[in-house]
Each structure stands twice: as structure tokens, then as C-alpha cells.
Write a structure and sequence with these properties.
The chain is mainly β. It is built from no helices and 13 strands.
């Protein structure tokens, strides 16, 4: 196989951050992704970005501590939990925009950003929540563990009404 026939990996967009990025996750079916990391001063950060015209646009910043985990609800991809270094869980909802796409000034079709809203948050520990997972079978059932050496089985209620 010649060099011209081999697959290529091309950096499309590069952006420097003023914090250490631990993880990046795409928002399903969109041009958005979430970054999670930690500033040098020890505080965490979670940011939602969207690709617009070959550049990254910051849409939202959340969390006051390091984000250790992000898990989408298997039964509803619009709902997700984030687990933080301060021992908290945050339940979020992604809201799709009324108009999913529009044409820019040059007539090129582009995606329209939705929004993310915080539905609920709870502090479970004084230590970081280090693992988190939703049950694939029972809506609202999840398990998490933290550095306080505790495993917690949680029930998130009223998810069918959101």
C-alpha cells in the first residue's frame, strides 16, 4: 500500500486550554463535545463546545470541582449525570433547538446549538466520586463509588416526566 492509499489522521481544529483536559466526549448526533479537566489551582471544569465554521465556540461552563465521570442515561440520551471531585452528582438535560439547522451568510447548511440545563444536584461525599454507571435495564437506577470507600446505589426519580 502506497503512502497515498493509506488512511490519514488530520488535525482539523486545534485549541489550547488553560487547564489539563482529562476527557472529551461527543454529544450524540451533534457537532458538540464536552471537555472535563482540572485547573492548576485544583478546581475542576466542564465545558461544552460546538464546532462552528471551523472553530470551537464555548457554549457553557459548569462544575466547581474536577469532573471525574459523565454518563448518559441509556434510556434517554438527552439526560446525563456528571460526578465531581467535591463528592457531588449533577443531573443535566440537553434541550434540542427548535430549528436544528440553518444556512450561514454564504448559504452553507450548519447545525444550531441546543442548550444544557441543570435539573438537580446532590452532594454525596466529601471525597471525589470516582466511578458512576447507569443500569441498562432499570431507568433511574445507578451506582457510584467514591474515595471515602463507599459504594452507593442510587435511584433518580421522575425521569419519565422530564
Amino acid at each position: 500500500m502506497s503512502a497515498f492509499e493509506k488512511p490519514q489522521i488530520i488535525a482539523h481544529i486545534q485549541k489550547g486550554f488553560n487547564y489539563t483536559v482529562f476527557d472529551c466526549k461527543w454529544v450524540p448526533c451533534s457537532a458538540k463535545f464536552v471537555t472535563m479537566g482540572n485547573f492548576a489551582r485544583g478546581t475542576g471544569v466542564i465545558q461544552l463546545y460546538e464546532i462552528q465554521h471551523g472553530d470551537l465556540k464555548l457554549l457553557r461552563e459548569a462544575h466547581k470541582s474536577t469532573v471525574w465521570q459523565v454518563r448518559h442515561l441509556p434510556q434517554n440520551r438527552e439526560l446525563f449525570l456528571t460526578a465531581g471531585g467535591a463528592g457531588g452528582l449533577h443531573l443535566w438535560k440537553y434541550e434540542y433547538p427548535i430549528q436544528r439547522s440553518k444556512k450561514d451568510s454564504e448559504g452553507i447548511e450548519m447545525g444550531v446549538a441546543g442548550s444544557v440545563s441543570l435539573l438537580q444536584n446532590v452532594t454525596l461525599s466529601t471525597q471525589p466520586i470516582s466511578s458512576l454507571d447507569w443500569s441498562p435495564d432499570k431507568r433511574g437506577l445507578c451506582v457510584c463509588s467514591s474515595f471515602d470507600q463507599t459504594v452507593r446505589v442510587l435511584i433518580v426519580t421522575k425521569l419519565n416526566k422530564i
